[in-house]
Amino acid sequence: MPAQTDSDDALTGAPDSETDAGPPRAGKAGVFKSPKGGSKDASLHNEGPERRCIATMQRCSPSQMIRFVVSPDGVVTPDVAARLPGRGAWVTASREAIDLAAARGAFARAFKRQVTVPAGLSAQTEALLVRRCLDMLGMARRAGGLVLGFEQVREAIRDSRPGCLVAAADASEDQRNKVLGLAKAIYGPDLEEDPDTAGKGDLPPVAGCFSGVELGMALGRDRVIHACLKLGPIAHAWMGELGRLSGFRRVWLPGWQPASGSETGARDENMI
Predict the structure, then answer these.
(1) Sign of the dihedral through C-alpha 221, 241, 160, 200
(2) Domain 19-119, what architecture?
(3) 0.85 exceeded by the pTM?
(4) pLDDT tens for residues 84-111?
(5) Tens digits of residue pLDDT in 18-56
(6) How many Cβ atoms are within 10 Å of 44's Cβ, its own excluded?
(7) Are 153 and 176 in contact (CB under 8 A)?
(8) Which position among 176, 206, 259, 260 has the lowest Cβ density within 10 Å, counted as fewest Cβ atoms?
């Protein structure tokens, strides 16, 4: 990815340094417009310079990383939206990388000061990512970009290609199979015409990492079991957040993850 030098397009500071100098000026970067005219912080999914993970020392896009800052009382704090003030250090978005950074004293080295790394920092980061993903679903619903309900989702699949399907982790196998079977019939490969396309169909991704109660709380209902996120900028940003969450838990239903190597990634095949 080509680096950009405009400090309004990414967190300021040299990409090769251990930390950045802080977020860009308010109102410049990190906002996309929803179809209804709303807005949402999406700075991590803009083009910007790669960052170096303080745990693995590997460089990658900020959209695949978590930014950390130090609170006024010296506690290392996840900044999943990359908007908190002060210097920030970057870690690959995975439980293993965060635990490695904590174990090796990478935060103290990066910030060049004594810091307190709270126990369960990776679990805290996961919880913040979950909250961010669910909040974005709520925004998608308010913008008219989210369809809810078993029959409504099936109708949406027939009408146009989904940006992403959502199946609650506690969905009944029968109903889930009916939704996925319909999507596969419409968007899967035609094996009779081309047997070589087996396993290569451009199927819509399916997220299955949230419970019906979690989805319901985010969407103003008791429970939500089936949802369909329409194609568009909100779906694109949400898929990026799920890509980061996949470093902490299994996100995609097996066989229904985004293509490996895409921006959203498919990193959770081996997650437990």
Answers:
(1) negative
(2) 2-Layer Sandwich (3.30)
(3) no
(4) 999 999 999 999 999 999 999 999 999 9
(5) 788 888 664 443 332 333 334 444 445 545 688 999 999
(6) 25
(7) no
(8) 260
